[in-house]
């Protein structure tokens, strides 16, 4: 439209570049800080790009007991939440897709409602409940909470995948005498693989990144997840510690970066696709 | 609603055995068995706690097993109204939620319309625009603390070089600039979601209509007002409402950035409630705060949506 107006075009690019600097610069700064030597971080006039690139900050971060410990904790908690969420969601998602029931709508309503209610209303009773069950400050308690809070959305994702599997396949199976549970296990579940990967990744990354529940439900340092450890880490804010902090933060970002790399198309594409039709 | 063939009501004590099988949520036995492993945990660990949380707001629940909890009706709310910290945190919460939502919407709309055009390196721009979304909240907080850091931060250094400031500013610890500084991070963190949604809206705008309007000599602004805006309005309504709710309920980001300081200058309602509950053990009072937040959100959403609906009717 503006092919003949170079001024407008260059303004446009200028605006775009400003946006991209705003959006990407903090990440650039985090990476830059993580690659600097302590001496360079302490300079009065900070350098944009490290003069001397070093990976010492990463080695330092990985040699610190609390960080390594919390990475292992987080992997365990997120992995267990992922597996449990998927296992519990598949049958329910099947029901949502195949039955004419109010379950689908109830799930959607719950997903929306849980956005409106502030987390304090849930976390106090949850804290009391877990304490009464003896699950306060345990992995099991935290995993339970993560499974329950990522499930409604995981269900919603999986439901749409089930809906794409032709029902005839199941009819054939049940004709051959397979029970419902058997049909799901042997016919539906294998065909669901892409949906399972998406829902599983979602559950893993939400648990990996989660902070608020962990803040309230975990107390002892040995049980801390990575988010908690990182936040504790900033408390001791000597400039010398900023390098390892930046390095550890980058490590903490890896799972969600992978998730976004895989899901990018679906996140933008899926959303765009749906919106165009409506 | 009942599909029972018999009209007469069976006596309550002796349910008729011939009644069609009652189904729950529209599920038969198989369906229930499959759904229950997912339903029970959700009900026990999220629906029930939420209901109990709402109820706690009407009690004097406190930390410590020895304390008896009793129903106190609206007592908590009366004390809330007398509590200057409460008013202050709601004021900050509203300033935060409105600034972030509105500014984010304006910036995201600009970015989305740029990304909607044929420009070079669009794929790169679209990928970079998603960066904040792909980062955990805690890392976002830490990253911005590094940017804002009074000595080692890049912001001070850049602003000094540009001659905007002449001494290092401690952005997150200064009473005047802490809230604006935190708002900038809030805008940054939510840009991708809002942009993606608005971009989807923009792509649904009919190209033919745009071209026809251009033929008739409509300028850029006129085309935006009369063609684009009406088409994206439902999307705008949905995303700004959601953004407002998310922002008013936000906790983690500001907790990592400032923990509500300095001197409560960034103490959002949820940070206040968190302190009340887990620092001072006032569960009932904190839950009442939560309920008050729900009321504020509900009032806002109803008012906002009704206002927009009315405008839509007048067209």
TrEMBL record, chain A:
It holds the Pfam family BPD_transp_1. The chain crosses the membrane at residues 12-31, 76-96, 108-130, 136-158, 191-218, 238-262. It is a multi-pass membrane protein. It is found in: Cell membrane. GO terms for biological process: transmembrane transport. One of its GO terms (cellular component) is plasma membrane. Residues 71-263 form the ABC transmembrane type-1 domain. SUPFAM superfamilies: MetI-like. Its main location: membrane. InterPro entries: BP-dep_ABC_trans_perm, MetI-like, MetI-like_sf. Keywords: Cell membrane, Membrane, Sugar transport, Transmembrane, Transmembrane helix, Transport. Belongs to the binding-protein-dependent transport system permease family. This is Multiple sugar transport system permease protein. It comes from Haloactinopolyspora alba.
UniProtKB/TrEMBL annotation, chain B:
It comes from the Bacteria. GO terms for biological process: transmembrane transport. Residues 90-306 form the ABC transmembrane type-1 domain. Its main location: membrane. The keyword Transmembrane helix applies. Residues 1-20 are annotated as: Disordered. This is Carbohydrate ABC transporter membrane protein 1 (CUT1 family). It comes from Haloactinopolyspora alba. The lineage of its organism: Bacteria, Bacillati, Actinomycetota, Actinomycetes, Jiangellales.
């Amino acid at each position: 439209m503006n092919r003949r107006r170079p001024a407008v075009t260059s303004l446009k690019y200028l605006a775009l570049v400003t946006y991209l600097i705003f959006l990407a610069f903090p990440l650039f700064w985090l990476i830059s800080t993580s690659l600097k030597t302590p001496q360079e971080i302490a300079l009065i006039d900070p350098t944009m790009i490290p003069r001397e690139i070093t990976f010492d900050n990463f080695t330092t971060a990985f040699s610190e007991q609390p960080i390594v410990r919390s990475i292992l904790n987080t992997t365990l908690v997120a992995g267990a939440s992922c597996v449990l969420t998927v296992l519990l969601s598949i049958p329910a998602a099947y029901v949502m897709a195949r039955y004419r029931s109010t379950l689908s709508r109830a799930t959607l309503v719950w997903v929306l409602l849980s956005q409106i209610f502030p987390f304090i209303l849930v976390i106090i009773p949850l804290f009391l409940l877990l304490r009464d069950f003896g699950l306060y400050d345990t992995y099991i308690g935290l995993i339970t909470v993560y499974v329950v809070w990522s499930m409604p959305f995981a269900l919603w994702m999986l439901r749409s995948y089930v809906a794409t599997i032709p029902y005839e396949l199941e009819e054939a199976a049940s004709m051959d005498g397979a029970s419902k549970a058997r049909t799901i296990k042997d016919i539906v579940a294998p065909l669901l693989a892409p949906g399972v990967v998406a829902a599983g990744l979602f559950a893993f990354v939400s648990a990996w990144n989660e902070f608020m529940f962990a803040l309230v439900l975990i107390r002892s340092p040995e049980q801390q997840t990575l988010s908690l450890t990182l936040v504790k880490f900033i408390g001791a804010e000597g400039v010398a510690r900023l390098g390892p902090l930046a390095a550890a933060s980058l490590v903490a970002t890896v799972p969600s970066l992978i998730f976004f790399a895989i899901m990018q198309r679906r996140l933008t594409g899926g959303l765009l696709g749906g919106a165009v039709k409506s | 609603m009942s599909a029972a063939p018999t009209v007469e009501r069976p006596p309550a004590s002796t349910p008729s055995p011939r009644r069609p099988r009652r189904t729950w949520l529209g599920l038969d036995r198989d369906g229930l068995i499959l759904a229950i492993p997912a339903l029970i945990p959700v009900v026990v660990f999220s629906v029930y706690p939420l209901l109990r949380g709402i109820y706690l707001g009407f009690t004097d629940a406190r930390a410590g097993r020895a304390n008896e909890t009793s129903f106190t009706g609206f007592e908590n709310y009366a004390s809330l109204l007398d509590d200057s910290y409460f008013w202050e945190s709601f004021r900050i919460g509203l300033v935060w939620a409105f600034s972030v939502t509105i500014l984010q919407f304006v910036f995201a709309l600009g970015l989305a319309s740029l990304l909607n055009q044929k420009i070079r390196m669009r794929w790169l721009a679209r990928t970079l625009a998603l960066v904040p979304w792909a980062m955990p909240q805690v890392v976002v907080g830490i990253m911005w603390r590094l940017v804002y850091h009074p000595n080692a931060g890049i912001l001070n250094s850049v602003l000094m070089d540009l001659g905007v400031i002449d001494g290092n500013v401690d952005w997150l610890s200064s009473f005047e600039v802490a809230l604006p500084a935190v708002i900038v991070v809030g805008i940054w963190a939510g840009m991708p979601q809002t942009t993606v949604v608005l971009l989807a809206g923009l792509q649904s705008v009919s190209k033919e209509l745009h071209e026809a309007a251009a033929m008739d000599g409509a300028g850029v602004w006129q085309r935006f007002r009369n063609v684009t805006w009406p088409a994206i309005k439902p999307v705008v309504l949905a995303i700004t409402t959601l953004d407002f709710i998310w922002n008013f309920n936000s906790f983690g980001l500001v907790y990592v950035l400032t923990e509500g300081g300095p001197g409560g200058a960034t103490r959002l309602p949820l940070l206040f409630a968190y302190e009340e509950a887990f620092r001072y053990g006032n569960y009932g009072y904190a839950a009442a705060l939560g309920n008050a937040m729900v009321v504020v959100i509900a009032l806002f959403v109803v008012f906002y949506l009704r206002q927009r609906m009315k405008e839509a009717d007048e067209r």
